[in-house]
Amino acid sequence: MSWNAYTDNLIATGKLDKAGIYGLDGSEWATSNLKLAASEAQELIQGFTDPSNLYSTGLHIEGKKNVCLKAEPESIYGKLDAEGIIAVKTKQAVLVAHYPAGVQAGEAAKIVEQLGEYLRGTGY
Asked: Residues near 58 by Cβ (< 8 Å), separated by ≥ 6?
């Protein structure tokens, strides 16, 4: 399965409208409707180690500032109005997904967290 199949499957759930997978070095592995600038990917990846900057200056995705709601070693959640971002760290990559207005954050988070858990279990 290619990496794009994972991002396409996230979109196919109907709960997410954008998704990407980025290596821990910031390299883009796959994307479906999501395009992070290199600086945005690095900011996000650094947030898993030191989230203080995300809380103070926000989480920037596609040029938009999201409020950082939660930042833990394996997951980061952000929100902008009724939309949100979920980022999940695996052993080698970071899954980033966007959910649109009208989708419950918990529903979207469950989908992304499950894929992250699966990828960690397979060594990625």
From this structure: 65, 66, 67, 68, 78
